[in-house]
Automatic annotation (TrEMBL):
The lineage of its organism: Bacteria, Pseudomonadati, Planctomycetota, Planctomycetia, Pirellulales. One of its GO terms (molecular function) is lyase activity. It catalyses: 2 D-glyceraldehyde 3-phosphate = 4-(hydroxymethyl)-2-furancarboxaldehyde phosphate + phosphate + 2 H2O. Residues 233-257 are annotated as: Disordered. Its EC number is 4.2.3.153. Keywords: Lyase, Schiff base. This is (5-formylfuran-3-yl)methyl phosphate synthase. Catalyzes the formation of 4-(hydroxymethyl)-2-furancarboxaldehyde phosphate (4-HFC-P) from two molecules of glyceraldehyde-3-P (GA-3-P). It comes from the Bacteria. The active site is at K28 (schiff-base intermediate with substrate), K84 (proton acceptor). InterPro entries: 4HFCP_synth. Residues 247-257 have a biased composition (Polar residues). It comes from Lacipirellula parvula. It is an enzyme of class 4 (lyase).
Length: 257
């Protein structure tokens, strides 16, 4: 069954997410951008509250900021197992080498790098999702998250259609990756996602009742968990009409959006 990740900015929100049944607690300060990092102090407070009752990941900002970022302090926080680094402003340069260096640092700290692809790559000036998948496969990254960069724009499905998401994630799973989808997801959007190829649905806005700058509420989280539990994918049904594979050499043929 698809798991639910909830992004929280502090320990109180983490408790609300746990009360609602979140599988993953994700550390994120929404005021600091789409992958805004919390401080190490906040992260340790959340890890104490979570205490192994859920898995713990953290947003760590953007790759270009990483070499001098305060988010590097998260490398030393026990309990955090995955770090997410965005690739905004990386569409022109040779980001792969810097990304591999960051991955090595994260692995050396005992954590995993989540490859993040922005569905609104044009606004983020980031590599397109299929290029991030290709790089993640080459680097043997174990996680692929597709998210949105501009949180004032639409939902994930307004930027990347369900067929493209299905192709991308089916290929990622074939390569042994865990797949995660995010991007202003609403309950209706989640129902329209190809959940059969999504291991983790990641939310903040929906867990706050729609406004990501508000506060995570346990009833909102619980409602999302019920929705995932009752989805056709978790009951074993498979949607029809979606391509099963992605041709990395010819992504346009697979719904590149
Ligand atoms: O990791 C997932 C994000 O926190 C999603 O945030 P959002 O639902 O506000 O787009």
């Amino acid at each position: 069954m698809t798991q639910l990740l909830v992004s929280v900015r502090d320990a109180a929100e983490a408790q609300a997410a746990l009360d609602g049944g979140a599988d993953w607690i994700d550390l994120k300060e929404p005021a600091n951008g789409p992958l805004g990092a919390v401080t190490a102090t906040v992260a340790r407070g959340v890890a104490e509250v979570v205490a192994g009752r859920a898995s713990l990941s953290a947003a760590a900002g953007e790759l270009l900021d990483w070499p001098h970022s305060p988010a590097r302090d998260l490398l030393a926080v026990d309990g955090v197992t995955q770090l997410k680094l965005g690739l905004s402003a990386c569409n022109d340069g040779d980001w792969r080498q810097a990304w591999l260096v960051a991955q090595r640092e994260i692995v050396d700290a005992g954590k995993k790098l989540v490859a993040v692809a922005y569905a609104d790559a044009d606004r983020a000036h980031s590599p397109i999702p299929f290029d991030v998948l290709e790089a993640a496969a080459t680097a043997r990254a174990r996680w692929l998250l597709v998210d949105t960069f501009d949180k004032s724009s639409g939902t994930l499905l307004e930027l990347l259609d369900a067929a493209a998401i299905q192709s991308l994630f089916a290929r990622a799973q074939q390569l042994g990756m865990t797949t995660a989808a995010a991007g202003r997801l609403t309950p209706a959007t989640i129902e329209a996602l190809p959940l059969e190829v999504i291991d983790v649905v990641a939310v903040r806005s929906a867990a706050c009742g729609g406004n990501r700058n508000a506060v995570v509420r346990a009833p909102c989280v619980a409602a999302l968990q019920r929705l995932l539990a009752n989805s056709p994918a978790s009951r074993g049904a498979r949607p029809r009409g979606l391509p099963a594979t992605l041709d990395l050499q010819n992504p346009a043929a697979s719904g590149r959006g």
